[in-house]
Specification:
Blueprint lengths: L1 E5 L3 H12 L3 E5 L3 H9 L3 E2 L3 H6 L8 E4 L5 H13 L5 E4 L5 H12 L4 E8 L4 H4 L2 E5 L2 H14 L6 E5 L4 H27 L1
Parallel strand pairs: 1-2, 1-4, 2-3, 4-5, 5-6, 7-8
Antiparallel strand pairs: 6-7
């Protein structure tokens, strides 16, 4: 299927490449023309603006856009722009580390125009291109099912994909717990090495 990827940093660029390898069409957009060109060289369709990106996605109600930008203001700004560009039935996926409470507000913001939203806690780092990304998805089941081919391509073949709940923010909530555990483990390792020294 065709999907747009906004944000072509280490995660977004690798996810774009993995989707292309799985037979999907990806419309790639980033504020950096060099980042867009790098994804185009790997088979993506380049876009030089959010407007041209949306036009490349086809009919209203069938468009899917994945946001992979830093949490906070960059994500909010992107959602604000997409609110005016997309229409009823289109789907926005926030794959970043947004706070789940902010995700709930953004979902309501988009729902006012009939735009569906999914939140995807995304784990895998730079190794995700080869190994796959563990995805923790929150949001409406019908939107999840429409996007499931994307998720199964991104996820490891051995698993690592879950639709957490239909509640907006549930995917980001689970990713927050995941991050808390991960950071506590790293701190424990650091303290252990310090004691050894």
């Amino acid at each position: 299927m065709r999907i747009a990827m906004i944000g072509l940093g280490k995660m977004g660029a690798n996810m774009t490449e993995r989707l292309l390898g799985g037979g999907h069409e990806v419309v790639a957009y980033d504020r950096s023309p060099e980042a867009v060109a790098a994804s185009v060289a790997k088979g993506a369709i380049g876009a030089d603006s959010l407007e041209s990106m949306v036009l490349s996605l086809g009919a209203v109600g069938q468009r899917v856009v994945w946001i992979m930008v830093p949490a906070g203001a960059p994500t909010q700004s992107t959602v604000d722009s997409l609110e005016s560009l997309l229409g009823a039935g289109d789907i926005v996926i926030d794959g970043g580390n947004s706070k789940y409470l902010e995700t709930q507000v953004r979902a309501e913001q988009l729902a006012a125009k009939g735009i569906l939203m999914l939140d995807s806690g995304t784990s895998g780092g730079i190794w995700g291109l080869e190994n796959g990304y563990c995805l923790m998805i929150g949001g409406p089941g019908d939107a999840y099912r429409r996007c499931e081919p994307i998720f199964t391509t991104l996820a490891p073949s051995t698993g690592g994909l879950i639709h957490v709940d239909e509640a907006h923010g549930s995917g980001h909530f689970v990713k927050m717990v995941h991050n808390g555990i991960e950071y506590a483990m790293m701190q424990s390792y650091a303290e252990g090495f310090e004691i050894i020294e």
